[in-house]
Amino acid sequence: MTLADAIRTIPDYPKPGIMFRDITTLLGDARAFRRAVDELVQPFAGQKIDKVAGIEARGFILGGAVAHQLSAGFVPLRKKGKLPHKTIAVEYDLEYGTDSMEIHLDAITPGEKVMLIDDLIATGGTAIAAIQLLRQTGAEVVAAAFVIDLPDLGGADKLRELGVPVSTLMAFGGH
Ligand code: AMP
């Protein structure tokens, strides 16, 4: 069984034309979950990483496990209004409208090496917003890792153009 077999695809969710890549089936499978975390960590084992930043909400589950394995801290990047202390925010475009993401102002000590984690990269809009926020706090974003890449949407290449090394565990064609 490959790791990709542990992902469930839901056609036309949340709207027609989207193939939703559901990682809950991977998370619920003990061996697949461990393997995904191992493979996310593997390229960076031995590299100094101070903190792992995870994007709400699926990036929290994977990012927490990756941070534990790397003996790094964990930093949540959250939707607007969820973080209780002083924050900075960034707005980013969705297909329809905009969204906003926040980080605690003191979550990163300037110069810390940070790895970004989410479940999936599509257009890259979410991850680029996350990198902007992290860089504003003084983080050095040394890597971004995702379980799933949708390469037809070009997000991973956009991150590489920003100077962030990207690693992904599998790719699916289309949206
Ligand atoms: P993007 O900003 O376009 O790179 O979209 C990435 C974010 O949207 C991630 O947080 C994903 O969890 C979610 N996402 C986008 N497309 C899909 C998809 N086909 N299946 C599951 N999640 C998706």
Short description:
The chain is of the alpha/beta class and 175 residues long.
What does this 3D model show about the protein?
This protein is of the alpha/beta class. The chain has a single domain (47-171), classed as 3-Layer(aba) Sandwich (Rossmann fold), CATH 3.40.50. The protein contains five helices and nine strands, in the order E-E-H-H-E-H-E-E-E-E-H-E-H-E. It has helices at residues 24-27, 30-41, 58-70, 125-136, 155-161; strands at residues 8-11, 19-22, 51-55, 73-79, 87-93, 98-104, 113-121, 140-149, 166-171. The strands form two sheets. A seven-stranded mixed sheet has the order 5-6-4-3-7-8-9, sandwiched between helices. A two-stranded antiparallel ribbon has the order 1-2. Helix 3 (58-70) links the parallel strand 3 (51-55) and strand 4. The longest helix has 13 residues, at 58-70. The relative contact order is 0.17. The model has no long low-confidence stretch (mean pLDDT 97). It binds adenosine monophosphate. Adenosine monophosphate is lined by residues 18-21, 55, 58, 118-127, 155.
